[in-house]
Amino acid sequence: MSESDNVAVLRESIEYHNDPETRERYLDSYSEDLTLHGADADGLAELAAFYRAVWEAIPDLTVTIEAVMAEGDEVAARYSWAGTHAETGEEVALESGLTWYRFEDGQIVERWVASGTGGAIEDLIEP
Which of 25, 37, 110, 113 is 20 to 30 A from 74, alpha carbon to alpha carbon? Predict the structure, then answer.
């Protein structure tokens, strides 16, 4: 697949994430054999459990891709998060996150999260 195809897969995945009706499809573009770096999750099942916890804490969560770069089978995305905490009613935001993805045959097979991003996300979901 081309670089633009990989970017399109990533953007579609984020569209699923942002819609409560389709967010269970968010990880459909991820390989069952996903390798994660810099995350407190080991594999696709743990990543899915993490996002279910995030969506429960912030049901209206929206991810906005601020910038994306692609080269070969890799795509890097800088993004922001915004939503309302379900328990406190407070607006929460992550100003800037960075994740790097590697694709094979249209699927995300490897994902790196920038240092500190996971902790910042966990802080957002705590009441």
Answer: 25
What is the Cα Rg of the chain in Å? 14
Kindly report the pTM of this predicted structure. 0.90
Is-contact 107 115, C-beta < 8 A?
no
Six-digit token string for 69: 């770069």
pLDDT digits (tens, 9 = 90+) for 92-125: 999 989 999 999 999 999 999 987 777 777 777 7
**pLDDT tens-digit profile of 56-98?**
999 999 999 999 999 999 999 999 999 999 999 999 999 989 9
Burial class (CB in 10 A: 0-12, 13-18, 19+), 87: exposed
CATH of the domain at 26: 3.10.450.50
Residue reference for tokens 């929206």: 62
Q: How far from 86 is each of 52, 71, 93, 115, 125, CA to CA, in Å?
A: 13, 38, 14, 26, 9
b/e string for 57-73 if b means 16 or more Cβ within 10 A?
Answer: bbeebebeeeebebeeb
Provide the number of structural domains found in the chain.
Answer: 1
